[in-house]
Structure formats: structure tokens, C-alpha cells
Amino acid sequence: MNKRILFTVTSDLSYDQRMNRICTSLANAGYTVTLVGRTLRSSIPLTGQPFKQKRINCFFDKGKLFYAEYNIRLFFFLLPKKMDCLVAIDLDTILPVYFISRLKNKKRVYDAHELFCEMKEIVTRPSIYNIWKKIEQFAVPKFTMGYTVNQPIADEFKKMYAVNFEVIRNIPWLKTLMPFEKKEKFILYQGAVNEGRSFETLIPAFKDIDGRLIICGDGNFLLQAKQLVALHHLQDKIVFKGKLKPDELSLFTQQAYIGITLFENTGLSNYLSLGNRFFDYLHAGIPQLCVDYPVYAAINHQLPIALLVTDISATNLAAQLNHLLTNDVLYHELQQNCLCVRQTLNWQNEEKKLIAFYNHIFD
Questions:
Q1: What percent of the chain has pLDDT over 70?
Q2: Has residue 318 got a pLDDT over 80?
Q3: 102 and 251 share one domain
Q4: Whole-model pTM over 0.85
Q5: According to the 3-state scheme, what is the secondary structure of 310-336?
Q6: Average pLDDT over residues 89-114
Q7: What is the mean pLDDT of residues 301-306?
Q8: Pairing label, strands 85-89, 107-112
Q9: 199 half-sphere exposure, CB direction, 13 A CA radius
Q10: Bigger pLDDT: 301 or 44?
Q11: Is the residue at 179 inside a domain?
């Protein structure tokens, strides 16, 4: 086969589990894969993978200047490279991928992790929203091949831009669980500490919860989250561990008692989300408190693995978490369901759709 696929992201490659899974599966299927990301000040050395990795250095870390700089650097990085297919991950890298694919007459694919323009941090800032929306309206219709993380988001792309995107969910590999003795019933939030993740109500809820919240990750709301912890005098109950390497995070998640998957209903991206952490908790065999939004509800309806909530006020979050902490019958039922569902909802099954998608491109 020996077809060359080049993926472009703005993330730190060491922590991007979705892209590492995708690139590994395609490399194992016989493709020559390169994943291009960026170097952060906090970046750790890259580890060996069955695909090539490249980091681009930038002077700016965030904001408009970062995106402008990164896209220019990425364009000139891609210009001399040989590839058969270029893949843009979200809108962050869509412009250089589009222009290079046109210049070189190569196949291009759009991998949409979310409805980028409908995220809270975008949709609530009109000037930022207008910029990204113009980019989306210009570029996405020109990507006739693509995939996203669930059917409702694929339907939105179809409605907006008349493109038929496949659905490839971000589900972990099925691995053997470690037999951890859970010495503490701590509650875990893992993933991006970003706007719209309900920290404004989750943090004060812990004034009435007999247990600790451990937060693994960073993001654009991290400083505000730490300020909320200080404001409510919860330093002894809420711990920030920062980013953990994927293997470390997987083991740590298995030691937790309950996981947290919360999103504010601000922006369609949140409402139609299918967060990575939802499946991470499932595969760790731990029940979770999760918002009762359409995609989560559809999965949970088949066999309950989460306690779903429609009210994300601090009072209700405290009540529901305390219920899950103290109701051993409910907890055991959800836990056993997790162990059952992970046998079918796993990357070994999901990657078949990914490989079929790229095989079809090169038929």
C-alpha cells in the first residue's frame, strides 16, 4: 500500500490520545503516517511510535497571533513534503491543508472533533466567532471527504455545507484492567479544563460532598478554576494534578471511584458533544456523573453506565454525587455495566471504520 498520510494538529503530540490511536491504526494497516503538532514550553520528549512525528516551534502560545503564526509555519513546512493525503484536524489547521492540497493536487480530509465554531469560548465572543465562521464557510465545503465523532454533528455538517461525513468515535483500546484496591472514593475530572465544562458549579458543589475532586488536565479555564477553589476555601478537597501522560492517566483513572462528564448547554458543540472522557471512564470500569444530552443519553439508554443529570447547579451536583457515593447497589450496577459495554465499545471495533474510510479513499 505505502500511501503517505499526513495529519496536522495544534496540540502537543505527547498527550493527544485520539491522534495517537488513529495514526497507530493506520500505520499498522500499512500506511506511512506523519503527525505534525507543535512544541509547547511544557512539552516532554516524544516517545517512539509506529508513525513519524514532527513538532513545529512557535513564538506565540495562544490567541490570534499564535494561530496566524502556526498556520504560516505549517504551510511552509508542508510545501516541500511528499504525501498522498493531507488531513486537517478541526479548523485550527484547515487553511494550510486546503491550500497545500490544491497546490499539490493531493487528497484532503477533514477530521472534526467537534463543531468548532459552536464551542462556548467561540460562540460567546462575536468577533472571534465571525473569524472562525468565515474560515469554516470557506473551507469545509471544499472537503468532500471527512469524519467526525458522532452522528448529530455529522448531520449538522450535512445541513450547513452539504458534506457527507462518516462517524468514527474516539474510544480507547480494550485493555486488561489492573486490580486496584480503591482506598479512597475520590472523584475524577480528566481532560481539558476549558470554558463550558461546568466548573463554576462543580467546584462549589464540593462544599457539600464528603470526598475529594482530583482534576487531571489543563486548559483555558485552569486559572479561573484555581481561583474558584480558593474563593470557596476548598484547597483540601480539590487537587489539580496537571497533565498526565496517557499511560499514567489510564492507570490513575482506574483508581478513581466516580468520573465527571459535564458541559454547559452553551453552544451547540457542547450539547451535541461526545467527550473523550466519557469513554475513558467507561474503559476504566468506573461509573460517572454525566450530562443528559442526546449522544450520552442514547448510549446510556442501551445499558446504563452513568448517572445522567439535567440540572448542573451546585446543589444538584452535590446531591447526585453523594447519591452515587453512598448507594452501593446503584454503583455496583453501573460498574458491572461498564465492564460489559467496554467489550463492544472499543477502538478494536471502531478502527475498522477508520481503516475502511482510508482504504476507500485510495481505491
A1: 100
A2: yes
A3: no
A4: yes
A5: CCCCHHHHHHHHHHHHHCHHHHHHHHH
A6: 97
A7: 96
A8: parallel
A9: 29
A10: 301
A11: no
How far apart CA 150 and CA 166 sit, in angstroms, is 9
List the alpha helices (DSSP H) in the chain: 17-28, 63-78, 94-104, 120-123, 126-139, 151-161, 199-205, 222-231, 246-255, 268-271, 276-284, 294-302, 314-326, 328-341, 347-361
Show the cell assigned to 59.
513564538
Give the C-alpha separation, 198 to 237, whole Å.
17
3-state SS assignment for residue 270: helix
Q: Report the number of distinct structural domains present in the chain.
A: 2
Of 261, 301, 302, 296, which is closest to residue 281 (Cα–Cα)? 261
| pLDDT for res 1 | 60
For residue 146, give the nearest of 354, 362, 293, 1 by alpha carbon.
354
| Residue 183 clears pLDDT 90, i.e. is over it | no
CB 108 within 8 A of CB 143: yes
Matching residue, cell 486546503: 98
Q: Check whether 192 has a pLDDT greater than 80.
A: yes
Is residue 143 domain-resident?
yes
Domain range for residue 79? Answer: 4-171+346-361
